[in-house]
Design goal:
about 90 residues, mainly beta, SH3 type barrels, 5-stranded antiparallel beta sheet, 5 strands, about 15% helix, about 45% strand, globular
C-alpha cells in the first residue's frame, strides 16, 4: 500500500516538542521513516523546521549530503537524538 493519500494521524505532543527542541538546539537526529513509495529511509539528519499544511504536520531535515527532505511526522517510525559530538 502506498503512503500517499493516507489520512494523517496526529503524533503525541511530547514527540512534537522533542523535534522543536532538536531544531532550536541544532541537534542531529537518527531518523527512520517510510517515504511515499513505502520505502524505509534511514538517515542522520539536521532538523531545520516544522510546518503544517492541509492539517498534516511535517519536519524539514537536511541529510548527510545536505539533501532536503520534507517528512510527514506520522510516517516517522524511529527517532534518536544524537549527541552534539555526533
Amino acid at each position: 500500500m502506498k503512503k500517499s493519500g493516507t489520512p494523517y494521524h496526529p503524533i503525541p505532543c511530547a514527540d512534537y516538542s522533542r523535534y522543536e527542541c532538536a531544531i532550536v538546539q541544532n541537534q542531529k537526529l537518527r531518523l527512520a521513516w517510510q517515504d511515499r513509495r513505502n520505502l524505509l529511509q534511514l538517515h542522520t539528519v539536521r532538523p531545520v523546521d516544522l510546518l503544517t499544511r492541509a492539517s498534516e504536520e511535517f519536519i524539514i531535515v537536511l541529510d548527510e549530503e545536505s539533501h532536503r527532505h520534507q517528512v510527514r511526522l506520522d510516517y516517522i517510525c524511529h527517532c534518536a537524538i544524537l549527541s552534539n559530538s555526533a
